[in-house]
From TrEMBL:
It comes from Chungangia koreensis. CDD domains: NAT_SF. SUPFAM superfamilies: Acyl-CoA N-acyltransferases (Nat) (SSF55729). This is GNAT family N-acetyltransferase. Residues 6-148 form the N-acetyltransferase domain. InterPro entries: Acyl_CoA_acyltransferase (IPR016181), GNAT_dom (IPR000182). It comes from the Bacteria.
C-alpha cells in the first residue's frame, strides 16, 4: 500500500478533484449531511491518501495546530465503501498520527470522532474530552491523543 502526503499546493488538479469528490460522496451524499465541505482549511493542511487502481481508497486531512483547533488535528477521515473492514482505516489513522509527529512538534492531536467510532480511535490512544454532541445530525465526540 502506497501512502501519499501532499500540501495543498503540491496536489495536482486531478488529485484535488478526486479528493473533493470522494469527500463529498461520503460526507455529504452517503451521510446525508448538507454542510460546507469546502471549509477554508484545505490550503494549510496536509492531505494523506492512498491510491488503488488510480482511485483514492482512503484519505485524511491533517490540519496544523492553531488553524482549526489549538492542537494539530486529523479530519475528513474516510475509507471508500468497497475497502471498509479491510484494515485500511487502521493503516490510515496510524499513518496520519505518524505524519503529524514527523511534520510538526506537537504534544496533542485532536479529532472529532463519530461517536460509534470512539472505541476505534481509543485503540490508538485517543481519549474523549467532550460529551457526545450532534454535528449535522450525526453524534460526535471530541478526542485527544497525547503525543509522546
Amino acid at each position: 500500500m502506497k501512502w501519499i502526503t501532499k500540501s495543498f499546493d503540491e496536489l495536482t488538479t486531478i488529485e484535488l478533484y478526486h479528493i473533493l469528490k470522494v469527500r463529498t460522496d461520503i460526507f455529504v451524499v452517503e451521510q446525508k449531511c448538507a454542510y460546507p465541505e469546502i471549509d477554508g482549511h484545505d490550503g494549510v493542511s496536509l492531505h494523506l491518501f492512498s491510491l488503488q487502481n488510480g482511485e483514492i481508497a482512503a484519505y485524511a486531512r491533517l490540519v496544523p495546530a492553531g488553524e482549526k483547533y489549538e492542537q494539530a488535528s486529523i479530519g475528513r477521515v474516510l475509507v471508500i465503501p468497497a475497502k471498509r473492514k479491510s484494515g485500511l482505516g487502521r493503516q490510515l489513522v496510524s499513518q496520519a498520527i505518524d505524519k503529524i509527529k514527523e511534520e510538526w512538534d506537537v504534544k496533542e492531536i485532536k479529532l472529532q470522532a463519530q461517536s460509534h467510532l470512539e472505541s476505534f480511535y481509543g485503540s490508538f490512544g485517543f481519549q474523549p474530552v467532550s460529551e457526545i454532541y450532534d454535528d449535522d445530525g450525526i453524534p460526535h465526540v471530541d478526542m485527544l491523543l497525547t503525543v509522546r
